[in-house]
Amino acid sequence: MMRVIETRAALQTWSDAERAGGRRIGLVPTMGALHAGHLSLVEEARLSADLVVVSIFVNPTQFNDAKDFEGYPRVMEDDLAACRNAGVDVVWTPQVEELYPEGASTWVDVAGLSEPLCGGNRPGHFRGVTTIVSKLFLAAKPHVAVFGQKDFQQLAVIRRMTRDLGFDVEVVGGATVRESDGLALSSRNVHLGPVAREQALRISESLAIAERMFASGERSTASILEAVRKKLSEATQATIDYAELRDPSELELVGDEVEGPTLLAIALQFTADADGLGADVRLIDNRVLGSAAT
Ligand code: PAF
Fold first, then answer.
1. How many CA atoms lie within 13 A of 290 on its CB side?
2. Same domain for 96 and 31?
3. For residue 103, pLDDT beyond 50
4. Which of 8, 26, 115, 129 is 20 to 30 Å from the Cα of 137, by its Cα?
5. What spacing in Å lies between the alpha carbon of 239 and ligand 1's midpoint?
6. Who contacts 145 (Cβ-Cβ below 8 Å, separation ≥6)?
7. Measured torsion, CA atoms of residues 237, 238, 239, 242, in degrees rounded to the nearest 10
8. Atom 3 of ligand 1: nearest residue by CA position
9. Mutate which of 40, 147, 162, 188 to test ligand 1's pocket (most atoms within 8 Å of Cβ)?
10. Alpha-carbon distance 294 to 289, whole Å?
11. Residues in CB range of 277: below 8 A, 6 or more apart
12. HSE-up of residue 141 (Cα within 13 Å, Cβ side)
């Protein structure tokens, strides 16, 4: 029977009791609007945990655009049903007032890794993520926590935070789940109008182009990025936030030549179409060239 727990104290009590009973706890942090990608993270957690907790909390501090926060899909009943079907043991649905009490002024901030890519265009975003993930770890006390690899930088930042602060949590990356046409699943996809939805395919197509170039021996950073940008520019309803090649561990820009496995990270910003269909939506995706594809 799935339990829905609302308060931090109740979750901690549950977690303490299960840990004392020798059971391993897996945490899948989410902001709800669950899709098959989230459910694959639940599966992944299940591989190394006896009990799986899903947290559902739309974290205000990681949004730097109030409209994005307000418009973020909130479908709690559907999410609870999806968790029940997936065999989740506990869903934690905390309230903002509990996680950010009046006057809250403590932040967890990972310097360096948080700054490029999404950090450049969304100031404060990762500080919000690492702060809330710390709070989730402290409340759920998981042995293992699973995050999607679609948010490659987020995963890197959380791994660094976990190591630096000494959280006794194993952080696992779950493979990106895609629609059959290649679009990476995202809670934001529901906001795409039909034209933007079709044009969003340029993202996975450009990743595939880069992978093919790399596989056939191309090592010029400029040539790979030129081909990627050319493909992305066919998405006329979007602007390119970034399309960059970086080293996958420190996220530093690569030089003129790519060497071993290299991260290609992309963010496209779509605007509502001329007929007002859809909304402004930012999509991200990535691939580590020269490694097993995700
Ligand atoms: O990836 C997300 O959905 C969020 O950034 C997370 C990790 C749940 C923190 O709010």
1. 15
2. yes
3. yes
4. 115
5. 24
6. 26, 27, 28, 29, 45, 133, 136, 137, 158, 169, 170, 171, 172
7. -160
8. 30
9. 147
10. 10
11. 193, 194, 195
12. 15
57 CA: nearest ligand 1 atom: 10
End-to-end CA distance of the chain: 33
Name all residues whose Cβ lies below 6 A of ligand 1: 29-31, 59, 62, 129, 132-133, 147, 151, 154
Same domain assignment for residues 191 and 161:
no
Question: How far are the Cα atoms of 114, 153, 195, 258 from residue 38, in angstroms, in the given order?
Answer: 23, 17, 26, 32
On whether the pTM is more than 0.85, the answer is yes
Q: Which residues pair with 284 in a beta bridge?
A: 267
Parent domain of 212: 187-288
Give nearest CA residue, ligand 1 atom 9. Answer: 129
Is position 293 within any domain?
A: no
Going from the Cα of 287 to the center of ligand 1, the distance in angstroms, rounded, reads: 20
Amino acid at 91: V
Q: Whose CA is nearest to atom 8 of ligand 1?
A: 30
Mutate to test the pocket of ligand 1, among 61, 62, 118 (most ligand atoms within 8 A of CB): 62
73 SS3 class: coil
Q: Mark whether 143 is an active-site residue.
A: no
Ligand 1 center to residue 208 CA distance, Å? 26
**Rounded to an integer, what distance in angstroms lies between the CA atom of residue 186 and that of residue 68?**
14
Which pair of tokens denotes residue 227?
């081909």
Q: Indicate the residue type of 95.
A: Q
Q: Tell me the per-residue pLDDT of 213-264, one tens digit each, with 9 for 90 and over.
A: 999 999 999 999 999 999 999 999 999 999 999 999 999 999 999 998 999 9
Structural domain total, the chain: 2
What is the rounded distance in angstroms from the CA atom of residue 27 to the CA atom of residue 54? 6
At 16-53, the pLDDT tens digits run 999 999 999 999 999 999 999 999 999 999 999 999 99
Does residue 82 form part of some domain?
yes
